[in-house]
Amino acid sequence: MIFELIRLQWLKAFRSTSFGKSAAISAVLIFLAALLLLYVLLAGLFLSEIIDKVAEGQDPLELLNSWLIYFFLGEFMYRYFIQKLPVIELESLLHLPIGKRRIIHMLLVRSFVSPLNIIALLLFLPFSISHVAEVNGGIGMLGWLGLILSFSWTLHWFMLWFKQRFEDSFIGLVVVFAVLLMGGGLSYMGWFNVGEWVAPMFTLASTSLIPFFVFLALCIGMYFITYNYYLNNAYLEDLSEEEEIRFANQSLGFLSRFGDAGEMANLEWKLIIRHKKSRTYLMLSAFFLLYGLIFYTNPVYQSEGINFIFIFVGVFITGIFMIQYGQLFLSWNSANFDFFVNRKDGLESLVKGKYLLFVAISILCFVCSVPYAYFGWKFLFIHFVTFLFNIGILMHVIIYLALWKPKPMDLNKGAMFNYEGVGAAQFLMIIPMMILPYVIYLPFAFLVSEYAGLIALGVLGAVGIVFFKPLMAINLKRLLAQRYEISSSFRQEV
């Protein structure tokens, strides 16, 4: 029966109209995965030399044991963003006369065949042979390496359950943030070193098989927890049922005061809340409000004046939603773009509504960044002038570039490593975002003072706000001239 399921999956892929494109993409991904695994293997072969250079004179095994937990916290993060869920296949299989239990087992076992599950083996196997086996023998090597692998594979099954249960939710975002805090924040601030707390477990594993057997049992148990969750939720009516999201039908009341533009902004807000990809962008925007903690508390960037990198940080914090969501300006509406084309003043209301929403959320981001004044009033001033520059100038530039050959996309797919809707214009947007603020800031900073550069940045943004309507009319005119070409491209299959 397992072979029959494999045969059905092969036929599905082979008979697809996009088989050639999928095969080419798969070939590129396989090459990149092989190249990455080769780098991991090389890192494993030279791991002991790397440790000697980083901490000369210390016991490599003891030091590595205190670092291993950070590897697993990092593994949690890259599995969260990269690891795919197998349940996407269920809807095409559950109607077949095949036992549901067998289908679930097949999908879970197939998900285990992944390059992610051999990273730990390639990285730590050479070290376990050259150091652990040499000091503690074969039993020590088996216990130490077995604990690492069982820990890594437990994360595999846990992530399948966690992403299916909490992905794209507030709880999931809190957990990911907590892992990041444990992985770097606590140690960086000197509050708590989780590595030293966990190190004795790995030290014990190099002399005893008990930790290995405990985590092997945990790995098996996690597999069956994941299996039972998938089994209990694998019904066609559940798969086809739209996800219930709290506040999905709620409007932002204050936007209704702006006429048709406000109504379109409210519709855009509902689109963001209801769909997986746009909702992920919104949550990531909230998460990246903490971006300043990386720079504002780092002694490397502290000085008497204003470090030039703070300009980019201010632009990023106060305009993150506009930058992320705005780069796919029309792609979000690709499924119903014809509705706006055929409606009187539909495109104009759509554009105005998006502008209004960008400004509203940018204001919210600026307000949420006010606590950075704790690190110094200059940071609040930086955020204020970059906020003005974002909504006065940069927003129009990003939208202008986003109107260059926009591509359709499926809103129900996740945002991570999903490149639907992304084209050359989205990569070009990095240039004005990175360079344009400095084109204004640096001449005044060098010739007059750093605060003069900030004032020039803020004044230009304020001028852009005053001339908002003429600047918006440029993008609107461009959209109206290209509306039929854009509509035709959106009708193509994603």
Automatic annotation (TrEMBL):
Protein name in the entry: DUF5687 family protein
Keyword presence, Transmembrane: yes
Annotated transmembrane regions: 21-47, 67-82, 103-129, 141-162, 169-191, 197-225, 280-296, 308-332, 353-374, 380-403, 424-445, 451-468
Cross-referenced Pfam families: DUF5687
UniProtKB keywords: Membrane, Transmembrane, Transmembrane helix
